[in-house]
Recover the amino acids of this structure.
């Protein structure tokens, strides 16, 4: 048989290469019943109903006698701080400081109640207040929450909802424009829909109970990327460095319509602290997602309700009530 025909026959008989196996989802630390987690320079702890676990070794550490029934753990100067109901079932909340070795608690002290949210009297007033708070948050690298509007220089970006799942993203100002968007759902039951990247270059749209997550050019409103999730998507926040978009999904079947009261971007400190976010009455959620905004790809999906998003030793950690996952 001529050599060329022999080579062709061998090539035809060669088995086709198998497809590459899917990349496995990185394993997280499964800890059902996580109340909270926190880190300081010395290490990290997970707060469970039964006590603390030192991470990553999962060494149990008992809370000292007299400690509150805590659901929140925070680093504190000289030690740690726990927060929880002042008494089992009580609506008032108290806090307690713990020594660095977690052995000595202070006397519990009451926490001030959360200030009621009051809407701005008109869109212009809200835009001015929002822009000042957002600029302050960017200067401190705080997180950027989702809201009813976003402000880019002298322009305001809003979402107008139509019928049968139709919506328009509108940009006012000198370069006014709009784009139509199909949300695959009825009017939103939860209002915060927009978040603007710290660079002011990209706008993110999540209108619960729509499963759509969209990134738009903030100037032209041209679509850059989008995701269609398995369930309704609820925006949580954009990290202060603009690297990650964090949102939740869940089942909207049994969720009654209810108004949303945005977290007030006022006062000192992070305007969207995790412990405040966890106290909001959100729609039902079952999974937390983190998207790398530069690529529009999901970096992690973690089952459970949101507990905390941590940065420790040049790594990022997503904490739910069921799992701790490193990105």
């Amino acid at each position: 048989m001529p050599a060329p025909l022999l080579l062709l026959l061998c090539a035809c008989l060669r088995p086709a290469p198998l497809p590459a196996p899917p990349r496995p989802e990185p394993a997280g630390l499964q800890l059902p019943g996580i109340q909270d987690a926190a880190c300081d320079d010395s290490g990290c702890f997970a707060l469970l109903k039964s006590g603390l676990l030192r991470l990553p070794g999962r060494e149990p550490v008992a809370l000292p006698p007299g400690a509150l029934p805590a659901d929140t753990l925070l680093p504190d100067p000289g030690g740690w701080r726990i927060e929880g109901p002042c008494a089992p079932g009580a609506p008032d909340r108290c806090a307690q400081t713990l020594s660095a070795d977690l052995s000595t608690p202070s006397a519990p002290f009451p926490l001030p109640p959360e200030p009621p949210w009051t809407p701005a009297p008109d869109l212009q007033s809200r835009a001015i207040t929002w822009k000042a708070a957002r600029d302050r948050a960017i200067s401190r690298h705080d997180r950027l929450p989702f809201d009813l509007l976003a402000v880019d220089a002298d322009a305001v970006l809003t979402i107008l909802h139509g019928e049968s799942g139709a919506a328009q993203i509108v940009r006012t100002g000198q370069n006014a424009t709009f784009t139509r968007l199909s949300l695959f759902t009825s009017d939103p039951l939860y209002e915060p829909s927009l978040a603007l990247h710290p660079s002011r270059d990209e706008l993110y749209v999540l209108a619960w109970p729509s499963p759509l997550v969209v990134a738009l050019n903030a100037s032209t409103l041209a679509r850059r990327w989008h995701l269609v999730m398995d369930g309704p998507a609820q925006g949580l926040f954009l990290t202060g460095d603009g690297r990650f978009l964090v949102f939740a999904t869940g089942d909207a079947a049994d969720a009654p319509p209810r108004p949303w009261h945005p977290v007030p971007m006022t006062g000192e400190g992070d305007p969207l602290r995790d412990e405040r976010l966890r106290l909001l009455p959100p729609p039902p959620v079952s999974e937390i997602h983190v998207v790398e905004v530069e690529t529009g790809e999901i970096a992690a999906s973690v089952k459970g309700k949101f507990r905390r998003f941590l940065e420790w030793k040049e790594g990022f950690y997503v904490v739910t009530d069921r799992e701790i996952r490193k990105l």
